[in-house]
């Protein structure tokens, strides 16, 4: 997936530099969509989903507290 | 403030941002090829996001200033912030398979630096808007030929950096998922 993303990134930048605005914008939007998809794929975990259970957000309640 | 001064400040601000982005992307390649630190998938996505920010700046220099281009850059700065924050939170509690990889620069690893870079970019745009007040009162860039030449040259350098990254990603990832322990096509 990363190779097509960089193909579109390179195309978008080159077309922008050459002044081909609409084509460049099209390549950029494809690149953004693919990048968001890959980001979600990379951070998704089979066991946790998108949660991050290793980050403890509350202290365990001990006797005499809470 | 005269319109010419506002225009100069606007493009100078964009030029400095592009210069910072070019320096960061170059440093990333130096770490990759000179120090042998193969980038992780989220690190490569952060490079993509930075190229997205550069895209808006290139268009501002090539096709004239527009708030639309700044908006595009800000979308990618926000995307960079989201990726970097998530990666920092993934690695913040070291456990097998999840820890900061690569060298620390001034004690901070790449994703933490990326949070600072994205925040600095967003602050830069906010300050620029606060000072220049948008695109309605700016004069054409051709009144500042040196600035235009510098912006265009830096834009071309960014395109070349993207080409190097594209080739590097082909070698590292092929058409499959990227890994930090190998260059797939060099196996």
Question: What is the gist of this entry?
Answer:
Chain A has helices spanning 2-17, 21-43. With 66 residues, chain A is mainly alpha-helical.
Descriptive terms for the model:
heterodimer, A: 66 residues, mainly alpha, 2 helices, 0% strand, B: 187 residues, Bromodomain-like, 5 helices, 70% helix
Average pLDDT over all residues of chain B: 90
Secondary structure class of chain B reads mainly alpha
Radius of gyration of chain B: 18 Å
Order of helices and strands of chain A: HH
The end-to-end span of chain B amounts to: 60 Å
Mean pLDDT of chain A: 90
Number of helices of chain B: 5
Q: Provide the CATH top-level class of chain B.
A: Mainly Alpha
| Distinct helical segment count of chain A | 2
What's the story with the biggest beta sheet of chain A?
none
Largest sheet report of chain B: none
Structural class of chain A: mainly alpha
SSE arrangement of chain B, N to C: HHHHH
Q: What would the principal axes of the Cα set say about the shape of chain A?
A: rod-shaped
Cα distance, first to last residue of chain A?
49 Å
Task: Supply the CATH architecture of chain B.
Answer: Up-down Bundle
Q: Tell me the overall shape of chain B.
A: elongated
Secondary structure blueprint with pairings:
The complex is a heterodimer of chains A (66) and B (187).
Chain A: H1 2-17, H2 21-43
Chain B: H1 3-33, H2 41-63, H3 67-91, H4 110-132, H5 145-173
Helix pairs in contact in B: 1-2, 1-4, 1-5, 2-3, 2-5, 3-4
Summarize the structure in words.
The complex is a heterodimer of chains A (66) and B (187). Chain A contains two helices and no strands. With 66 residues, chain A is mainly alpha-helical. In chain A, helix 1 runs antiparallel to helix 2. With 187 residues, chain B is an all-alpha fold. Chain B has one domain: Bromodomain-like, CATH 1.20.1550.10. In chain B, 70% of the residues lie in helices and 0% in strands. Chain B contains five helices and no strands. In chain B, helix 1 runs antiparallel to helix 2, helix 2 packs antiparallel against helix 5 and helix 3 runs antiparallel to helix 4. The mean pLDDT of chain B is 90. Chains A and B meet through helix 1 and helix 2 of A and helix 2, helix 3 and helix 5 of B.
